[in-house]
Amino acid sequence: MDGFESNDGVILIASTNRPDVLDPALLRPGRFDRRVVVSRPDVRGREGILKVHTRKIPLGEDVDISVIARGTPGFTGADLANLVNEAALNAARYNKKLVAMPDFELAKDKVLMGAERKSMVISPDEKRNTAYHEAGHTLVGLKVPNADPVHKVTIIPRGMALGLTQQLPEGDRHSATKEYLLGQIAIMMGGRIAEEMFFGANNVTTGASNDIERATELARAMVCEYGMSELGPLTFGKKEEQIFLGREIAQHRDFSEDTAIKIDQEVKKIVSAQYERAKSLIEENRDTMVRLSETLLERESLDGVQIRRIVAGLPLDDDQPPAGGDDERPQLKEPTVKPLKPILPPITGSNPATA
Ligand code: ZN
């Protein structure tokens, strides 16, 4: 850099999350010429990060950091810091001296899906509709091959959503196959289809708007960016991004009107095919759907193990409290004593995957 002699022994380090918009002059030899990419941590990285954040926290004997690391694929460093913080807060809320594994489980759900809004008043009809909608996502999620396992399904409102189906990959996922993406679209369609099938075409709700939006976006990306349609391995449209805002402001169109029509047709073809696929999956498993929806309506939350038991026609293990079941605990508004101080201020991390 200007102002430094080559023998000054000064090393300059800088970081950015927009390497794509850096002035090439900055990157010439002799300037910032070594680049270290810091991506999301893998399982070993997550274990190391968790060790750092739990250093000053009294952990229960049941806490196994490597298990938490394995169960949090896609989490960023900030997500993990948030996870530890939420777990500590949860233990403090119930005056526990040690942070135990269930505290981490609850914290994980909170980081993944947002906080529960148990106070929200929902009509029985709306609740029933949500249960069938979420069961639709869950059932399709279980039936399409190579999809991420369903981690949890809930009809307790979280954040802006009335219900949520959360998938969690088994390991670190760095790329996605066409089969996987098509499966994701089918899963997104599952909610609306369940509403149509069980409540009639005129009683479908606005609850599926986000599913539809994401499915369309994904299908469009498959056509325009990933070359996964009959239009071939081409990209269509260049994104012009506003420097420093990091926001896509204009889609630069580099294709003809004719191609635009073909793109729209391909997008529609992909989404419709997956809609039909999800529809037949739900039709074929109508009994399972009803069982899953009614149990969900009754229990409000089901974890992956419980879902698989219901689908297999096994009775639910009644020794286990319902998933996310902090219901048995005293509902304290305000912790009376704070044995543990939150180690970190809450950090809002980006959520890897939500459904
Ligand atoms: Zn949905």
What does this structure look like?
With 355 residues, the chain is mostly helical. It is 44% helix and 6% strand. The chain folds into two domains: 43-113, Helicase, Ruva Protein, domain 3 (Orthogonal Bundle), CATH 1.10.8.60; 124-311, Peptidase M41 (Methane Monooxygenase Hydroxylase, Chain G, domain 1, Up-down Bundle), CATH 1.20.58.760. It is built from ten helices and five strands; from the N terminus they run H-H-H-H-H-E-E-H-H-E-E-H-H-E-H. Helix 7 packs across helix 8. Zinc ion (ZN) is lined by residues 133, 137, 191, 208, 211.
Mean pLDDT: 84
CATH superfamily of the largest domain: Peptidase M41
Bound compounds, each kind once, are: zinc ion
Query: Can you count the helices?
Result: 10
The CATH architecture of the largest domain can be given as Up-down Bundle
Separation, N- and C-terminal Cα atoms: 47 Å
- Assembly form of the protein: single chain
Number of strands: 5
- SSE sequence, one letter per element: HHHHHEEHHEEHHEH
Gyration radius, to the nearest Å? 24 Å
Low-confidence stretches: 321-355
**Strand order in space, largest sheet:** 2-1-5
Number of domains as seen in the coordinates: 2
Broad CATH class of the largest domain: Mainly Alpha
Residue share in helix: 40-55%
The name CATH uses for the topology of the largest domain is Methane Monooxygenase Hydroxylase, Chain G, domain 1
Q: Pairing-aware structural class of the strands and helices?
A: mainly alpha
Outline, from the CA principal axes? flat
